Amino acid sequence: MLSRLNGLALLAGMTALSSICSPAAHAAGDPVIGEKKFYTCVGCHGIENYKNAYPDYDVPRLRHQNAAYIISALQEYKSGERPHPTMHAQASSLSDQDMEDIAAYLQGGDPVKPSAKVVGTVPAQVAPCAACHGENGLGVDAPMNPKPPVLAGQHVDYLEQALTTYKNGRRKNVVMDGMAQLLKSDEDVKIVAAYFASQPSPLLTAKIGSK
């Protein structure tokens, strides 16, 4: 596993890389308009415990997720770096401004603030993740663009699925491709996913009208 020093070195590299790779800026997202544009997403992301099929896992909670991460994820679905036919079709129908607006609505105000509070014992397998996601999954204070996702309180089976697809190469991400390889077994993946899912979180199912 990475040491804390190596994790910080990775964080510095990720920050520098993201400044090169970040997409061009667009008009700031409008959350009011974004809520209206989100209507096409409600059928899956607006239903508590709604399941993706084949493979079967809970679709992620998106309310209060970092806007910058939402935009990055949508772009990866659009480009095919994340393999999901439904999400590829949905993202392909969105303009850059649509993504900005939807992300602003989902974030619902300022980004989640990092915190040092941890519930339970941090497993050794979480060490590589902590440099970017924080030990409790709420992120870190260091500037990163785009911000990594909030992992705290996310569905455990979704986290397992995401980590597995990074690990087997089906999802493509310049940072996560390597980080997932540090989880040497399926059991490591399950331990990390269960730990972050158990942490207190602001994430909610994104029901229309939710605060």
Short description:
This protein is an all-alpha fold and 211 residues long.
Question: How would you describe what is shown here?
Answer:
- The chain is an all-alpha fold and 211 residues long.
- The chain has a single domain (4-197), classed as Orthogonal Bundle (Cytochrome Bc1 Complex, Chain D, domain 2), CATH 1.10.760.
- The protein has helices at residues 4-21, 31-37, 42-45, 67-79, 85-92, 96-107, 127-133, 156-167, 176-180, 186-197; strands at residues 51-52, 57-58.
- The protein starts with a helix and ends in a 14-residue tail after the last helix.
- 35% of the residues are buried.
How far apart are the termini? 38 Å
CATH architecture assignment name:
Orthogonal Bundle
The secondary-structure element order is HHHEEHHHHHHH
- Radius of gyration, in Å, reads 16 Å
Arithmetic mean of pLDDT: 88
General shape? globular
Stretches where pLDDT is under 50 for at least 5 consecutive residues are 1-24
Q: Considering DSSP H and I runs of 4 or more, what fraction of the residues is helical?
A: 40-55%
Task: Report the CATH superfamily.
Answer: Cytochrome c-like domain
Whole-number total of structural domains: 1
Structural class: mainly alpha
Query: Main beta sheet: strand number and arrangement?
Result: 2 strands, antiparallel
The DSSP helix count reads 10
**CATH fold group:** Cytochrome Bc1 Complex, Chain D, domain 2
How many beta-strand elements? 2
Q: So what's the CATH class?
A: Mainly Alpha
